Amino acid sequence: MPERVSKIAIVGAGAVGATIAYASMIRGVAKQIALYDISRDKVNAEVLDLNHGLQFVPMATLEGSDDIGVCAGADVVVITAGAKQKPGQTRMELAGANVELCRTLVPKLLTVAPNALLLVVTNPVDVLTYVVQKLSGLPSKRVFGSGTVLDSSRFRFLLARHLNVAVQNVHAFIAGEHGDSELPLWSSATVGGVPLLQWTAPGHAKLTEQDRTHIFDNVRNAAYQIIRGKGATNYAIGLATAQILEAVLYDEQRVLSVSSRLDGYLGISDVCMSVPSIVNRSGVETTLEIPMNESERESLRRSADTIRNAIRTLGF
Length: 316
Fold this sequence. Notes:
Elements: E1 7-11, H1 15-27, E2 32-36, H2 40-51, E3 61-65, E4 76-79, H3 95-112, E5 117-120, H4 125-136, E6 143-145, H5 149-163, E7 170-171, E8 174-175, E9 183-184, E10 190-191, E11 194-195, H6 209-220, H7 222-230, H8 235-249, E12 254-256, E13 259-265, E14 268-274, E15 277-280, E16 283-287, H9 294-313
Parallel strand pairs: 1-2, 1-4, 2-3, 4-5, 5-6
Antiparallel strand pairs: 7-10, 8-9, 10-11, 12-15, 13-14, 15-16
Helix pairs in contact: 1-8, 3-4, 4-9, 5-6
């Protein structure tokens, strides 16, 4: 029997959706990539541009349409459509308009791709992941968000640059909301197997309390800085989402800080937020209760309250 061809569908052909398609095409994530957008001219132009580069990447087929039927048969549907974050605007301030979009979108997606996993990228991603899971009625493991995968990448990059080590040797997570109430998990972070808070390698910088504050502030405010400068974040989230898709389609059992519904995680329930989780072909297989000190646990609970309050305000 021939191997089944994997397909991803991306809802929204804006800067983020198109870049996810581009990153997925370059990395050879799936053999079929579909783009859906209500703007026919926009989606056709993006797909035409992408197809012109097929000679230089692993072979795939790309198609696009303003008809949601283009998503049919997808293994994973990536939701990027929605109002764009404006300079100075918080992710939570986007919630109302993007929730209303999901009310219309989710039932249509389930009609054409009933067996797909739903990966939410639209902000506020934690709120919308919860809303999409509720609207879809799918098991929580099949509906998850990009969460703090990007934030954790920013965190590792800044730590690596400060300590003058390869970013691939830094293991550290941002948890909680993908937004202002997120938190760094300092107590479990390591560099080359050495606990970060014990790092003393000769010839490489140490990490002072002031350094920690500065690095985390830069992580938390990175999106605002990028949006002020060019209007949107797209390259890193495109690559981050491509990695999440690889973890799913290749059944990698990869540990990623995606956003999923928590029930009984360190006393936190009925909210979607990011914690380190094992991601595979079934979606979010399980969350990991990695070591946290009491301050981190309390910050995680506060972040959960922030997200939950937003969800309740929206009537969910």
